[in-house]
Amino acid sequence: MDATGLEERAASLTTRSIKTSSKRAALELAVSCMDLTTLEGADTAGKVHSLCAKALRPDPTNPEIPPVAAVCVYPTLVPTAVEALEGTPVKVASVAGSFPAGLGPLEARLEEIRWATAAGADEIDIVLNRSAFLSGHYSLAFDEIAASKEVAGEAHLKVILEVGELGSYDQIRKASMLATAAGGDFIKTSTGKIASAASFPTALCMSEAIRDIAERTGRQVGLKLAGGIRTAKQAWHYLVIVAETLGADWLTPRWFRLGASSLLNDVLMQHAKLSTGRYQRPENFTVV
Length: 288
Hints:
By secondary structure, the chain is of the alpha/beta class.
């Protein structure tokens, strides 16, 4: 790929301004496309219940704010999230398949996916086997994703590329094509466990791959951007990239996600400013 051209195109898209009349809609769209995540060793049922409450009513004082798209947890906490979100539009997502490295024995990885889906997960987040991919063992990486999709059943499979470890835009595009050809319903930038994650050029690179897949096959694949997205301004820049590259059909929680729990409160602060004319303080919003 033309790295310079890609970076220049991404930079130009992020200069697009959003007028005040559209900014409110963009902020509410960003909230509706967020996945709230807790993936810590100290996670408890209580923490998951708090996260689910935040997911359903991000700002309890403002009914205009929609619920988020999903809550993502470790497999053993899926039943807790399912119970808390039953009867609501918020999906339950689970990491599985030896997250975040993805290097456990394949059968153990597949069994973890089976367990999470049986427990009620609507979505499964797995990681691309970068060891196989970077060694040129593309068939192995492909077959593992295909096997994961098979055992996931009706659950949507998100394949995390961990773009910060792939080395180039060519590799990111190749991994995007491989993951979707193997059956991935979404491709995702990052686990959030390494420093290098989502960026505007990376988002554009993956969006162009998804666009080309749709044009060639008619198949629509989702995009999830995660890692390092912390401000409302970044969120609407990503919305512009997706809208300009993939079109309005992708600007729904069904096909686009922002995986950034730390982003939500900044978006809420910006939304409140549009309504009140005053900047809010971070402590005015709950943190989970």
